[in-house]
Amino acid sequence: MAVTRRGMGRDGRPTLEQVAARAGVGRGTVSRVINGSPRVSERTRAAVQQAIADLGYVPHRAARALAANRSDAIALVVPEAETRLFAEPYFSGIIRGVSAELADTDIQLLLTLIRTPKERQRFSQYAASHRVDGVLLVSVHGDDPMPDQLAEMGIPVVMNGRRSSDELVPHVDCDNVGGAQLAVEHLLGRGRSTVATITGPSDMYVARCRVDGYKEALRAAGRDPDEDLIAKGDFSEESGHAAMHKLMRRRPELDAVFCASDLMAIGARRALRELGRSVPGDVALVGFDDSSLARHMDPALTSVRQPMEGMGRAMTRALLAEIGDSGPDRPRLVLPTELVRRGSS
């Protein structure tokens, strides 16, 4: 680093060389003290720390990261279109949790959307060049190879959700089966006799789990699941709207619907209004997420609460532990869900 007449760096700040000269040690020794290396005697460490205090030296973050082979950045990767990212409250909840957990650190968060194979390849190359210290993956579909590719490259990765029941990549999930069971048990307990469901995409484990919970609740009540009462969606409002119309054509006598997301429940509510059906009078409605949208619906939506911000925080803690090699091996967490009862059911 070039030094001015007064021995300062070009920006007027004390340099590493100045600290070394004042402490009577080499530049490398100062670097080891700054990075917390144990290969320094207590006497030398104290001398360097005193020199740092006397000069008011502030370590350069980029230099520290380079010395430690770190980038001080993690990526939050969402393999969805930007319309989904900004429309679905689920994603904003996860992002809030991740951001809150990073607030007291020096780590930067990079938000990356992956919509095409080209974007997937570009991010893989970016990650392989060690531009990030770790990756958080959200909304992973069953055939997505990225978690395994990142793991093979030695890049710490934690997923939100799982691709299957035997997922090996570290992950944080919620109790999707149990949450769906709570929703359907509630509807049956309110005297509803014909309970339908609108599912998420079948290539996502989270969606299959919620269908499993729906079916298990029916069987526990002595009822056989009816495929005519199951309509496929993709977690979006429009898919909920289309699926609700399809269900009413198939089974116009249905009197309750469990939607696998709040956004699909909004679409279903719109379809029921178009068909002249009242909620909850004619059809009771339950969603999943307990997003802010649920509270603002008319009537307010009964919904299964999953801890979106809590999952974001837990994912981040797990990833930071993986990066620091200080956490449990292969963390796998499943957080509880609960039913929030409101006027729609």
- Total number of helical segments? 14
Distance between the termini: 69 Å
Helix content: 40-55%
Radius of gyration over all CA atoms, rounded: 26 Å
The portion of residues forming beta strands comes to 15-25%
Sheet bearing the most strands, described?
6 strands, parallel
Shape-level CATH architecture of the largest domain: 3-Layer(aba) Sandwich
Give the CATH topology of the largest domain: Rossmann fold
Order of helices and strands: HHHHEHHEHEHEEHEHEHEHEHEHEE
* Low-pLDDT regions: 1-10, 62-68
| Level-1 CATH class name of the largest domain | Alpha Beta
Q: Which structural class should the secondary elements be placed in?
A: alpha/beta
Mean pLDDT: 87
GO molecular function: DNA-binding transcription factor activity; transcription cis-regulatory region binding
Pfam families: LacI, Peripla_BP_3
Protein name: Transcriptional regulator, LacI family
Keywords: DNA-binding, Transcription, Transcription regulation
Question: What's the topology here?
Answer:
Elements: H1 16-23, H2 27-34, H3 42-55, H4 61-67, E1 73-78, H5 82-87, H6 89-102, E2 108-113, H7 117-128, E3 134-138, H8 146-152, E4 157-160, E5 171-174, H9 176-189, E6 195-199, H10 205-220, E7 230-232, H11 237-250, E8 256-259, H12 262-274, E9 284-289, H13 292-296, E10 302-305, H14 308-323, E11 332-335, E12 338-340
Parallel strand pairs: 1-2, 1-3, 3-4, 4-5, 5-11, 6-7, 6-8, 8-9, 9-10
Antiparallel strand pairs: 10-12
Helix pairs in contact: 1-2, 1-3, 6-14, 9-10, 11-12
Description:
This protein is an alpha/beta fold. It has 3 domains: 16-67, 434 Repressor (Amino-terminal Domain), CATH 1.10.260; 73-174 and 309-335, Rossmann fold (3-Layer(aba) Sandwich), CATH 3.40.50; 176-306, 3-Layer(aba) Sandwich (Rossmann fold), CATH 3.40.50. The protein is 45% helix and 16% strand. It is built from 14 helices and 12 strands. The strands form 2 sheets. It has a 6-stranded parallel sheet with strand order 2-1-3-4-5-11, sandwiched between helices. A 6-stranded mixed sheet has the order 7-6-8-9-10-12, sandwiched between helices. Strand 9 (284-289), helix 13 (292-296) and strand 10 form a beta-alpha-beta unit. Helix 1 packs across helix 2 and helix 11 (237-250) packs across helix 12. The longest helix is centred in the middle third of the chain and has 16 residues, at 205-220. It starts with 15 loop residues before the first helix and ends in a 5-residue tail after the last strand. 42% of the residues are buried. Mean pLDDT is 87; it is low at 1-10 and 62-68. Residues 14-68 form the HTH lacI-type domain. Keywords: DNA-binding, Transcription, Transcription regulation. GO terms for molecular function: DNA-binding transcription factor activity; transcription cis-regulatory region binding.
